[in-house]
Amino acid sequence: MELKLYNTLTRKKEVFKSIKKGEAGVYVCGPTIYNYIHIGNLRAYLIADILRRVLKFNNYKIREVMNLTDVDDKTIRDSQKQNKSLKEFTAIYEKGFLEDIKLMNLEMPEVMPKATEHINEMVDIIKKLLDKKIAYKTDDGIYFSIRQFKDYGKLSNINLKKLKTRIGDRVLKDEYDKKNINDFALWKFYTKDDGDVFWNTEIGKGRPGWHIECSAMSMKYLGEHFDIHTGGEDLIFPHHENEIAQSECASEKKFVNYWVHNGWVLVDNKKMSKSLGNFYNLRDIIKKGYSPLDLRYFYLTKNYRQRFNFTWKNLKASKTAYARLKNIISEIKDNECHSAYTPGAQDPKLRNAGANKTYLKEFEKAINNDLDTPKALQVLWKLVRDTNAKGKLNTIEKIDGVLGLNLLKQDKIKIPLKVKNLIKDRENARKNKDWKKADNLRDEIKKSGYIIDDAKDGVRVKRGCFIP
Ligand SMILES: [Zn+2]
After folding, report:
1. How far apart are the CA of 111 and the centre of ligand 1, in A?
2. Residue 208 Cα, ligand 1 centroid: separation in angstroms?
3. How many angstroms does the Cα of residue 269 sit away from the middle of ligand 1?
4. What pLDDT digit, counting tens, does each position of 224-249 carry?
5. Residue 240, exposed/middle/buried by CB under 10 A (0-12, 13-18, 19+)?
6. pTM
7. Which residues surround ligand 1, an ion (CB under 5 A)?
8. Which of 25, 106, 362, 448 has the smallest count of CB within 10 Å of its CB?
Protein backbone atom coordinates (compact mmCIF):
# COMPACT_ATOMS: atom_id res chain seq x y z
CA MET A 1 0.00 0.00 0.00
CA GLU A 2 1.17 3.52 -0.74
CA LEU A 3 2.18 5.91 2.00
CA LYS A 4 0.94 9.42 1.42
CA LEU A 5 2.40 12.48 3.13
CA TYR A 6 1.41 16.12 2.95
CA ASN A 7 4.38 18.01 1.57
CA THR A 8 4.62 21.65 2.66
CA LEU A 9 6.84 22.35 -0.33
CA THR A 10 4.17 21.43 -2.89
CA ARG A 11 1.13 21.97 -0.67
CA LYS A 12 -0.17 18.59 -1.72
CA LYS A 13 -0.59 15.13 -0.32
CA GLU A 14 1.92 13.04 -2.24
CA VAL A 15 2.86 9.38 -2.48
CA PHE A 16 6.14 8.90 -0.67
CA LYS A 17 8.92 7.65 -2.92
CA SER A 18 12.32 7.29 -1.33
CA ILE A 19 15.55 8.21 -3.09
CA LYS A 20 17.09 4.82 -2.32
CA LYS A 21 14.74 1.90 -2.64
CA GLY A 22 13.61 0.60 0.74
CA GLU A 23 15.50 3.24 2.71
CA ALA A 24 14.36 6.52 4.19
CA GLY A 25 16.52 9.37 5.46
CA VAL A 26 14.79 11.72 7.89
CA TYR A 27 16.03 14.88 9.57
CA VAL A 28 14.20 16.18 12.61
CA CYS A 29 14.97 19.66 13.93
CA GLY A 30 15.89 18.79 17.49
CA PRO A 31 15.50 20.90 20.60
CA THR A 32 17.49 23.93 21.68
CA ILE A 33 18.70 22.66 25.00
CA TYR A 34 18.30 25.80 27.12
CA ASN A 35 15.25 24.60 29.07
CA TYR A 36 12.95 21.59 29.46
CA ILE A 37 10.98 21.32 26.24
CA HIS A 38 7.36 22.44 26.39
CA ILE A 39 4.37 20.36 25.32
CA GLY A 40 4.32 22.07 21.91
CA ASN A 41 7.81 20.76 21.15
CA LEU A 42 6.81 17.38 22.56
CA ARG A 43 4.08 17.14 19.95
CA ALA A 44 6.61 17.75 17.17
CA TYR A 45 8.85 14.94 18.45
CA LEU A 46 5.88 12.63 18.91
CA ILE A 47 4.82 13.23 15.29
CA ALA A 48 8.39 12.56 14.13
CA ASP A 49 8.23 9.31 16.12
CA ILE A 50 4.93 8.31 14.50
CA LEU A 51 6.37 9.06 11.06
CA ARG A 52 9.40 6.95 11.91
CA ARG A 53 7.24 4.03 13.08
CA VAL A 54 4.98 4.31 10.02
CA LEU A 55 8.01 4.17 7.71
CA LYS A 56 9.15 1.05 9.54
CA PHE A 57 5.64 -0.41 9.31
CA ASN A 58 5.97 0.12 5.53
CA ASN A 59 9.24 -1.83 5.62
CA TYR A 60 11.62 1.08 5.15
CA LYS A 61 15.02 0.91 6.72
CA ILE A 62 15.22 4.23 8.46
CA ARG A 63 18.04 6.60 9.25
CA GLU A 64 16.81 9.41 11.43
CA VAL A 65 18.99 12.32 12.45
CA MET A 66 17.87 14.64 15.24
CA ASN A 67 20.21 17.43 16.20
CA LEU A 68 20.72 19.09 19.55
CA THR A 69 21.15 22.86 19.33
CA ASP A 70 23.69 23.49 22.07
CA VAL A 71 24.88 26.89 20.87
CA ASP A 72 22.69 29.80 19.76
CA ASP A 73 21.48 33.15 21.12
CA LYS A 74 19.27 31.56 23.79
CA THR A 75 21.73 28.98 25.17
CA ILE A 76 24.43 31.66 25.49
CA ARG A 77 22.07 34.17 27.11
CA ASP A 78 20.66 31.75 29.69
CA SER A 79 23.94 30.02 30.55
CA GLN A 80 25.39 33.43 31.39
CA LYS A 81 22.37 34.28 33.52
CA GLN A 82 23.00 31.15 35.54
CA ASN A 83 26.77 31.65 35.66
CA LYS A 84 27.45 28.31 34.07
CA SER A 85 29.64 27.35 31.16
CA LEU A 86 27.72 26.64 27.97
CA LYS A 87 28.60 22.97 28.16
CA GLU A 88 27.64 22.59 31.80
CA PHE A 89 24.37 24.44 31.20
CA THR A 90 23.23 22.56 28.07
CA ALA A 91 24.15 19.19 29.62
CA ILE A 92 21.31 19.66 32.15
CA TYR A 93 18.66 20.03 29.44
CA GLU A 94 20.16 17.42 27.19
CA LYS A 95 19.64 14.97 30.04
CA GLY A 96 16.10 16.29 30.52
CA PHE A 97 15.32 15.78 26.85
CA LEU A 98 16.63 12.20 26.86
CA GLU A 99 14.33 11.54 29.84
CA ASP A 100 11.39 13.00 27.90
CA ILE A 101 12.15 10.71 24.95
CA LYS A 102 12.01 7.67 27.22
CA LEU A 103 8.89 8.77 29.10
CA MET A 104 6.96 9.53 25.89
CA ASN A 105 8.02 6.15 24.47
CA LEU A 106 9.78 7.76 21.52
CA GLU A 107 12.24 5.61 19.62
CA MET A 108 15.79 6.90 19.63
CA PRO A 109 17.02 8.41 16.36
CA GLU A 110 20.02 6.72 14.75
CA VAL A 111 22.13 9.88 15.09
CA MET A 112 21.88 12.77 17.56
CA PRO A 113 24.58 15.24 16.59
CA LYS A 114 25.42 18.35 18.59
CA ALA A 115 25.99 21.69 16.90
CA THR A 116 29.17 22.47 18.86
CA GLU A 117 30.75 19.30 17.50
CA HIS A 118 30.13 20.27 13.86
CA ILE A 119 31.64 23.74 13.57
CA ASN A 120 34.07 22.62 10.82
CA GLU A 121 31.22 21.37 8.65
CA MET A 122 29.42 24.72 9.07
CA VAL A 123 32.56 26.67 8.21
CA ASP A 124 32.98 24.56 5.05
CA ILE A 125 29.50 25.47 3.82
CA ILE A 126 29.99 29.16 4.63
CA LYS A 127 33.32 29.14 2.76
CA LYS A 128 31.58 27.72 -0.30
CA LEU A 129 28.90 30.42 -0.12
CA LEU A 130 31.55 33.15 0.25
CA ASP A 131 33.41 31.77 -2.80
CA LYS A 132 30.21 31.90 -4.82
CA LYS A 133 29.54 35.45 -3.60
CA ILE A 134 26.20 34.34 -2.20
CA ALA A 135 27.46 35.18 1.28
CA TYR A 136 29.20 38.40 2.25
CA LYS A 137 31.15 39.72 5.19
CA THR A 138 30.26 42.75 7.30
CA ASP A 139 31.78 44.01 10.52
CA ASP A 140 29.50 41.92 12.73
CA GLY A 141 29.22 38.70 10.77
CA ILE A 142 28.85 36.78 7.53
CA TYR A 143 25.43 37.00 5.91
CA PHE A 144 23.48 35.08 3.31
CA SER A 145 22.19 37.33 0.56
CA ILE A 146 18.65 36.12 -0.02
CA ARG A 147 18.43 37.85 -3.41
CA GLN A 148 21.16 35.56 -4.70
CA PHE A 149 18.83 32.57 -4.41
CA LYS A 150 15.99 32.83 -6.87
CA ASP A 151 13.92 30.19 -5.07
CA TYR A 152 14.03 32.00 -1.72
CA GLY A 153 10.55 31.79 -0.25
CA LYS A 154 9.42 28.61 -1.99
CA LEU A 155 8.69 26.74 1.24
CA SER A 156 6.91 29.49 3.16
CA ASN A 157 5.36 31.05 0.04
CA ILE A 158 6.74 34.53 0.50
CA ASN A 159 7.25 36.73 -2.49
CA LEU A 160 10.55 38.57 -2.44
CA LYS A 161 9.49 41.00 -5.14
CA LYS A 162 6.75 42.36 -2.93
CA LEU A 163 9.11 42.95 -0.04
CA LYS A 164 10.09 46.41 0.96
CA THR A 165 13.50 45.38 2.31
CA ARG A 166 16.46 46.99 0.63
CA ILE A 167 19.47 45.09 -0.58
CA GLY A 168 21.82 44.66 2.32
CA ASP A 169 19.17 44.89 5.05
CA ARG A 170 20.23 42.30 7.56
CA VAL A 171 19.10 40.40 10.61
CA LEU A 172 21.66 39.16 13.11
CA LYS A 173 19.28 37.46 15.55
CA ASP A 174 18.62 33.72 15.21
CA GLU A 175 14.87 34.12 15.62
CA TYR A 176 12.83 36.61 13.66
CA ASP A 177 9.50 36.74 11.87
CA LYS A 178 8.05 37.50 8.48
CA LYS A 179 8.17 41.21 9.17
CA ASN A 180 11.95 40.93 9.09
CA ILE A 181 12.64 39.02 5.91
CA ASN A 182 16.23 40.04 5.37
CA ASP A 183 19.69 38.66 4.77
CA PHE A 184 20.40 36.38 7.69
CA ALA A 185 23.55 35.61 9.68
CA LEU A 186 25.53 32.48 8.84
CA TRP A 187 28.37 33.39 11.19
CA LYS A 188 28.48 35.93 14.00
CA PHE A 189 31.79 37.58 14.79
CA TYR A 190 32.84 37.54 18.40
CA THR A 191 31.63 40.25 20.74
CA LYS A 192 32.29 40.42 24.45
CA ASP A 193 28.66 39.44 25.10
CA ASP A 194 29.56 35.94 23.88
CA GLY A 195 31.88 35.46 26.89
CA ASP A 196 33.96 32.37 26.36
CA VAL A 197 31.76 30.99 23.56
CA PHE A 198 33.69 31.29 20.30
CA TRP A 199 35.65 29.34 17.74
CA ASN A 200 38.77 30.53 15.95
CA THR A 201 38.23 29.50 12.35
CA GLU A 202 39.35 30.35 8.84
CA ILE A 203 36.35 32.63 8.44
CA GLY A 204 37.08 34.48 11.68
CA LYS A 205 36.60 34.27 15.43
CA GLY A 206 32.97 33.80 16.33
CA ARG A 207 30.09 31.38 16.38
CA PRO A 208 27.55 29.98 13.92
CA GLY A 209 24.05 31.30 13.30
CA TRP A 210 21.31 28.84 14.22
CA HIS A 211 20.13 28.05 10.68
CA ILE A 212 23.47 26.87 9.31
CA GLU A 213 23.71 24.30 12.10
CA CYS A 214 20.89 22.16 10.70
CA SER A 215 22.16 22.37 7.11
CA ALA A 216 25.59 21.16 8.19
CA MET A 217 24.38 18.29 10.37
CA SER A 218 21.68 17.04 8.03
CA MET A 219 23.93 16.98 4.96
CA LYS A 220 26.76 15.35 6.89
CA TYR A 221 24.68 12.39 8.02
CA LEU A 222 22.07 12.09 5.26
CA GLY A 223 23.83 13.48 2.18
CA GLU A 224 23.18 16.68 0.25
CA HIS A 225 19.85 15.39 -1.03
CA PHE A 226 17.63 13.39 1.29
CA ASP A 227 14.04 12.24 1.75
CA ILE A 228 12.19 13.90 4.62
CA HIS A 229 12.65 16.90 6.90
CA THR A 230 10.24 17.46 9.79
CA GLY A 231 9.50 20.16 12.34
CA GLY A 232 6.79 22.30 13.87
CA GLU A 233 4.98 24.77 11.61
CA ASP A 234 6.71 27.62 13.44
CA LEU A 235 9.99 26.49 11.86
CA ILE A 236 8.82 26.92 8.25
CA PHE A 237 9.91 30.54 8.28
CA PRO A 238 12.65 31.51 8.68
CA HIS A 239 14.48 28.39 9.83
CA HIS A 240 13.58 25.87 7.13
CA GLU A 241 13.44 28.49 4.39
CA ASN A 242 17.01 29.43 5.32
CA GLU A 243 18.14 25.82 5.53
CA ILE A 244 16.96 25.29 1.94
CA ALA A 245 18.67 28.48 0.73
CA GLN A 246 22.06 27.71 2.30
CA SER A 247 22.06 24.04 1.41
CA GLU A 248 20.88 24.33 -2.19
CA CYS A 249 23.25 27.20 -2.94
CA ALA A 250 26.19 25.26 -1.48
CA SER A 251 25.43 21.87 -3.04
CA GLU A 252 23.59 22.97 -6.19
CA LYS A 253 21.22 20.09 -5.56
CA LYS A 254 17.67 19.85 -4.33
CA PHE A 255 17.98 19.67 -0.52
CA VAL A 256 14.90 17.72 0.64
CA ASN A 257 12.04 15.99 -1.18
CA TYR A 258 9.32 16.03 1.50
CA TRP A 259 8.75 18.65 4.20
CA VAL A 260 6.46 17.46 6.98
CA HIS A 261 5.23 20.05 9.47
CA ASN A 262 2.96 19.65 12.46
CA GLY A 263 0.56 22.27 13.79
CA TRP A 264 1.07 24.33 16.91
CA VAL A 265 -0.17 23.42 20.34
CA LEU A 266 -2.45 26.02 21.87
CA VAL A 267 -3.43 26.01 25.53
CA ASP A 268 -7.07 26.91 26.15
CA ASN A 269 -7.09 28.26 22.59
CA LYS A 270 -4.30 30.69 23.37
CA LYS A 271 -0.73 30.72 22.22
CA MET A 272 1.61 29.38 24.89
CA SER A 273 3.58 32.14 26.50
CA LYS A 274 5.54 32.70 29.68
CA SER A 275 3.46 35.76 30.53
CA LEU A 276 0.18 33.80 30.45
CA GLY A 277 1.69 31.09 32.63
CA ASN A 278 0.45 28.37 30.27
CA PHE A 279 3.89 27.13 29.33
CA TYR A 280 3.81 23.48 30.37
CA ASN A 281 6.45 20.78 30.11
CA LEU A 282 6.20 17.05 30.69
CA ARG A 283 7.13 17.41 34.35
CA ASP A 284 4.10 19.68 34.90
CA ILE A 285 1.85 17.07 33.26
CA ILE A 286 3.20 14.30 35.50
CA LYS A 287 2.86 16.47 38.61
CA LYS A 288 -0.85 16.85 37.87
CA GLY A 289 -1.30 13.08 37.96
CA TYR A 290 -1.10 12.20 34.27
CA SER A 291 1.22 9.71 32.70
CA PRO A 292 3.29 10.65 29.64
CA LEU A 293 1.35 8.01 27.69
CA ASP A 294 -1.93 9.72 28.61
CA LEU A 295 -0.52 12.73 26.78
CA ARG A 296 0.66 10.53 23.92
CA TYR A 297 -2.86 9.13 23.50
CA PHE A 298 -4.29 12.65 23.75
CA TYR A 299 -2.07 13.93 20.94
CA LEU A 300 -2.96 10.98 18.70
CA THR A 301 -6.65 11.90 18.83
CA LYS A 302 -6.03 14.79 16.45
CA ASN A 303 -4.50 14.96 13.00
CA TYR A 304 -0.93 16.21 13.24
CA ARG A 305 -1.37 19.03 10.75
CA GLN A 306 -4.16 20.67 12.68
CA ARG A 307 -3.46 22.99 15.55
CA PHE A 308 -3.93 21.18 18.83
CA ASN A 309 -5.89 22.80 21.60
CA PHE A 310 -4.59 21.51 24.92
CA THR A 311 -6.99 21.68 27.85
CA TRP A 312 -6.76 19.85 31.16
CA LYS A 313 -10.34 18.73 30.75
CA ASN A 314 -9.63 17.03 27.44
CA LEU A 315 -6.43 15.50 28.74
CA LYS A 316 -8.52 13.97 31.52
CA ALA A 317 -10.99 12.55 28.99
CA SER A 318 -8.10 11.01 27.07
CA LYS A 319 -6.67 9.52 30.23
CA THR A 320 -10.00 7.82 30.91
CA ALA A 321 -10.31 6.53 27.34
CA TYR A 322 -6.74 5.22 27.35
CA ALA A 323 -7.27 3.41 30.66
CA ARG A 324 -10.48 1.85 29.34
CA LEU A 325 -8.73 0.71 26.19
CA LYS A 326 -6.00 -0.95 28.22
CA ASN A 327 -8.57 -2.64 30.44
CA ILE A 328 -10.46 -4.09 27.50
CA ILE A 329 -7.20 -5.33 26.02
CA SER A 330 -6.21 -7.01 29.25
CA GLU A 331 -9.56 -8.85 29.21
CA ILE A 332 -8.91 -9.89 25.62
CA LYS A 333 -5.59 -11.20 26.79
CA ASP A 334 -7.26 -13.43 29.35
CA ASN A 335 -9.85 -14.69 26.87
CA GLU A 336 -7.66 -15.31 23.85
CA CYS A 337 -5.20 -17.01 26.06
CA HIS A 338 -7.88 -19.25 27.49
CA SER A 339 -9.62 -20.19 24.25
CA ALA A 340 -6.40 -21.05 22.49
CA TYR A 341 -4.78 -22.68 25.44
CA THR A 342 -3.06 -25.96 24.94
CA PRO A 343 -0.78 -27.34 27.60
CA GLY A 344 2.80 -26.57 26.74
CA ALA A 345 1.99 -23.77 24.37
CA GLN A 346 2.87 -20.88 26.64
CA ASP A 347 4.55 -18.76 24.00
CA PRO A 348 2.15 -15.87 23.30
CA LYS A 349 3.06 -15.96 19.63
CA LEU A 350 1.86 -19.55 19.40
CA ARG A 351 -1.35 -18.74 21.23
CA ASN A 352 -2.29 -15.95 18.85
CA ALA A 353 -1.06 -17.13 15.53
CA GLY A 354 -1.99 -14.76 12.73
CA ALA A 355 -3.24 -11.21 12.86
CA ASN A 356 -6.66 -10.12 11.67
CA LYS A 357 -6.11 -9.17 8.04
CA THR A 358 -9.27 -7.08 7.67
CA TYR A 359 -8.49 -4.85 10.62
CA LEU A 360 -4.82 -4.64 9.85
CA LYS A 361 -5.62 -3.48 6.33
CA GLU A 362 -8.05 -0.89 7.65
CA PHE A 363 -5.43 0.37 10.08
CA GLU A 364 -2.82 0.53 7.33
CA LYS A 365 -5.17 2.52 5.12
CA ALA A 366 -5.69 5.07 7.89
CA ILE A 367 -2.10 5.49 8.99
CA ASN A 368 -0.74 5.54 5.44
CA ASN A 369 -3.09 8.37 4.61
CA ASP A 370 -0.85 11.16 5.90
CA LEU A 371 -0.50 9.61 9.36
CA ASP A 372 -4.19 9.74 10.21
CA THR A 373 -3.89 8.75 13.87
CA PRO A 374 -7.49 9.67 14.87
CA LYS A 375 -8.78 7.24 12.24
CA ALA A 376 -6.22 4.63 13.31
CA LEU A 377 -7.46 4.89 16.90
CA GLN A 378 -11.03 4.40 15.66
CA VAL A 379 -9.99 1.20 13.91
CA LEU A 380 -8.32 0.00 17.09
CA TRP A 381 -11.45 0.69 19.16
CA LYS A 382 -13.61 -1.09 16.62
CA LEU A 383 -11.30 -4.09 16.75
CA VAL A 384 -11.24 -4.43 20.52
CA ARG A 385 -15.05 -4.17 20.67
CA ASP A 386 -15.66 -6.67 17.87
CA THR A 387 -16.64 -9.90 19.62
CA ASN A 388 -16.26 -11.92 16.42
CA ALA A 389 -12.82 -10.74 15.34
CA LYS A 390 -10.07 -13.33 15.33
CA GLY A 391 -6.40 -12.79 16.08
CA LYS A 392 -7.00 -9.66 18.13
CA LEU A 393 -3.85 -9.72 20.22
CA ASN A 394 -1.54 -10.13 17.27
CA THR A 395 -3.30 -7.29 15.48
CA ILE A 396 -3.12 -5.04 18.53
CA GLU A 397 0.57 -5.79 18.82
CA LYS A 398 1.16 -4.70 15.23
CA ILE A 399 -0.96 -1.56 15.57
CA ASP A 400 0.79 -0.65 18.80
CA GLY A 401 4.12 -0.93 17.01
CA VAL A 402 3.04 2.27 15.25
CA LEU A 403 1.03 4.04 17.95
CA GLY A 404 3.53 3.27 20.70
CA LEU A 405 0.98 3.19 23.51
CA ASN A 406 2.37 0.10 25.28
CA LEU A 407 -1.04 -1.52 24.97
CA LEU A 408 0.13 -5.03 25.76
CA LYS A 409 2.59 -4.15 28.44
CA GLN A 410 1.59 -5.61 31.75
CA ASP A 411 1.17 -3.21 34.58
CA LYS A 412 2.56 -4.27 37.93
CA ILE A 413 0.55 -7.27 39.09
CA LYS A 414 -0.65 -8.09 42.55
CA ILE A 415 0.00 -11.72 43.38
CA PRO A 416 -2.55 -13.33 45.70
CA LEU A 417 -1.25 -14.79 48.94
CA LYS A 418 -2.32 -18.27 47.86
CA VAL A 419 -0.09 -18.08 44.79
CA LYS A 420 2.74 -16.57 46.80
CA ASN A 421 2.61 -19.57 49.15
CA LEU A 422 2.57 -22.01 46.22
CA ILE A 423 5.68 -20.30 44.86
CA LYS A 424 7.36 -20.60 48.24
CA ASP A 425 6.46 -24.30 48.49
CA ARG A 426 7.87 -24.86 45.02
CA GLU A 427 11.10 -23.10 45.92
CA ASN A 428 11.45 -25.42 48.92
CA ALA A 429 10.71 -28.47 46.77
CA ARG A 430 13.43 -27.38 44.36
CA LYS A 431 15.88 -26.89 47.20
CA ASN A 432 15.13 -30.46 48.30
CA LYS A 433 15.53 -31.60 44.69
CA ASP A 434 11.97 -32.92 44.72
CA TRP A 435 11.46 -32.13 41.04
CA LYS A 436 8.17 -33.95 40.72
CA LYS A 437 6.63 -31.90 43.51
CA ALA A 438 8.08 -28.71 42.03
CA ASP A 439 6.51 -29.51 38.67
CA ASN A 440 3.15 -30.23 40.23
CA LEU A 441 3.28 -26.95 42.09
CA ARG A 442 4.13 -25.12 38.88
CA ASP A 443 0.96 -26.59 37.33
CA GLU A 444 -1.00 -25.59 40.40
CA ILE A 445 0.26 -22.00 40.02
CA LYS A 446 -0.63 -22.02 36.35
CA LYS A 447 -4.14 -23.12 37.16
CA SER A 448 -4.45 -20.08 39.39
CA GLY A 449 -3.68 -17.90 36.39
CA TYR A 450 0.03 -17.19 36.83
CA ILE A 451 3.10 -18.24 34.94
CA ILE A 452 6.49 -18.42 36.57
CA ASP A 453 9.91 -18.26 35.00
CA ASP A 454 13.04 -19.28 36.84
CA ALA A 455 15.67 -16.59 36.48
CA LYS A 456 19.15 -16.39 37.93
CA ASP A 457 18.12 -13.88 40.55
CA GLY A 458 14.84 -15.54 41.54
CA VAL A 459 11.43 -16.33 40.16
CA ARG A 460 9.54 -14.05 37.76
CA VAL A 461 5.78 -14.13 37.83
CA LYS A 462 3.44 -12.97 35.13
CA ARG A 463 -0.23 -13.31 34.50
CA GLY A 464 -0.92 -16.32 32.38
CA CYS A 465 -3.89 -18.26 31.19
CA PHE A 466 -6.79 -18.66 33.51
CA ILE A 467 -7.87 -22.27 33.62
CA PRO A 468 -11.24 -22.79 35.29
ZN1 LIG B 1 16.73 22.91 12.56
Report:
1. 14
2. 13
3. 26
4. 999 999 999 999 999 999 999 999 99
5. buried
6. 0.88
7. 29, 214
8. 448
